[in-house]
Amino acid sequence: MLLEALYHVPRDKWAYAYDPTTIHLRIRTKRDDVEQAYAMTGDKYDWTGTYQELPMEKTAHDRMFDYWEVAVRPKFKRLSYAFKLTSGTETVYLLDAGIQSEAPHPPGECFEFSYIHELEVVRVPEWAKQAVFYQIMPERFANGDPSNDPKPVEVWGGKPTRDNYFGGDLQGIIDHLDDLTDLGITAIYLTPLFTAPSNHKYDIVDYKQVDPHFGDNALLKTLVERCHDRGIRVVLDAVFNHCGEHFPPFQDVLKNGETSPYAGWFHVNRFPARVENGVPTYDTFGFFPNMPKFNTANPDLKNYLLGVAEYWIKEIKLDGWRLDVANEVDHPFWREFRQVVKQANPEAYLIGEVWSDSLNWLLGDQFDSVMNYPFADKVLEFFTGGVDGAAFSDEMGSLIMRYPHQTNEVVFNMLGSHDTPRLLTRVGGDKRKLKLCVVFLFTYIGTPCVFYGDEIGLTGDGDPDCRKCMEWDRSKQDRELYDFYKLMIELRKRHTALRHGRFRFLHAEPGDPNLVYERMDAQMHFTVWMNNTAQAVTLTHPMQTNDWRDALTEEAVVPVNGIMNIFLEAYGFRILYRHIQT
């Protein structure tokens, strides 16, 4: 065994409490190097009386490593443990004291999980595990009240630019709640609603007022109430990294400089705060002078922003916040933010916008979830022919091992957003490839989200083209695609195994672009078969039972001599299931 590849630390994603009675342990080994791993566990005060040697399951792998996992339920909420690894005739032990070939004498030199403190268990909102999200840009979804349109307003459905307006508003969303209910949506995420001069509203001027082009605060409250009546949760966008240049405190800094009571609210590198030769003397979001960056370490600003977060949670019974540019805001701010929001609504769902590995924000003291852009990138790379099945399974295994399991259950998975090209465009206009992506989205771990219009075939390149108006003329919608989305959403909502079950690849081979994978819980076992090629194929895999059915047609599907043979058209798929006998 390659000892240098062995890795475990008794914290974060490697050793954590999944719930008040269960500890998850993980270990890393070299790929295909270890035949079996065991967790040697017991209570340090009664090792002999509590000792268990538990076989670990190889739950994921990436290009270089295998990852093993086991759930332990200690008798007294504390755990001492070590790992036993075998390969052929070789056995080694991994302990807190190091790696050795001799059997240890526990509990000395073992790793320790000192105690499961319920306050320290990473808790995520249960409803988010069941949710199907729908992202809406209010300005582009529906114009329900032309009387509040900005001037000038474009004809609905025209070409979007960075600066034009089409008149979408909150009333438009209310008018189409029947459509969201019909699709099967149970939660919506709205991009910023508060007063701002732009069409996207990420340059906020008044954090406690709905933009008059969208409606008013009372109408937002009505929207949330109507959604809640239908069982739809509502999450708003919190822009706390920066504001708009017309935000009154920033205008005061422009006017009064260092003497402004708000001077400490911003990162002014040199007074006066202004733009010199195209470069601002203050920090900004990106390189946009019209979006000055907040100094969230400032106590007065911090109290103001935390007050905003609490205000909307209480005022409209908000179900959560999506946190814009979250990785550029300091961690102490987000820790206080979580405390304030969770005190106002313990089930509030907090989603950070972080585009890379986000573990630092997901340890229970800041966010519940992040926008899983790496998921979207890897799924789209695979289903557009960028990598083979083996590479894809490696990459997804790496993603699964980034976070504790309860975080994986609510990580915010999407295939596109207001910041990326449209899904149908990213797959080259091939609806068959789009469907494969969507099947994967709705049969994978995490909380799925649909970007408005993807379900009826909207296309578009990057910003601003991806921010097209929603098409409400049914004759111009792809209704077959809509019905497909509806079918997949209903399938996920109907079966807990597709939300909480174990995920594992069964067939993902080098040079082979096809996949077979499974989701399984104590009641149901699903297998998903995918042909990611332009030719029809028959995929095979051993199956031990004869009780499989097609999840979409209910047709019986029987293996022959213990081998399942599944014929798939080009870019076709099939979803099978069986009830597990108890």
UniProtKB/TrEMBL annotation:
Signal peptide interval: none
Domain Glycosyl hydrolase family 13 catalytic: 135-492
One Gene Ontology term from the biological process aspect of the record: carbohydrate metabolic process
Pfam families: Alpha-amylase (PF00128), Alpha-amylase_N (PF02903), Malt_amylase_C (PF16657)
GO molecular function: hydrolase activity, hydrolyzing O-glycosyl compounds
InterPro entries, per the entry: GH, GH13_cat_dom, Glyco_hydro_13_lg-like_dom, Glyco_hydro_b, Ig-like_fold, Malt_amylase-like_C, O16G_dom_2
Listed Gene3D superfamilies: Glycosidases (3.20.20.80), Golgi alpha-mannosidase II (2.60.40.1180), Immunoglobulins (2.60.40.10), Oligo-1,6-glucosidase, Domain 2 (3.90.400.10)
Record keywords, A-Z: Glycosidase, Hydrolase
Record-stated family: Belongs to the glycosyl hydrolase 13 family.
Annotated protein name in UniProt: Alpha-glycosidase
Organism per entry: Paenibacillus mellifer
Native organism taxonomy: Bacteria, Bacillati, Bacillota, Bacilli, Bacillales
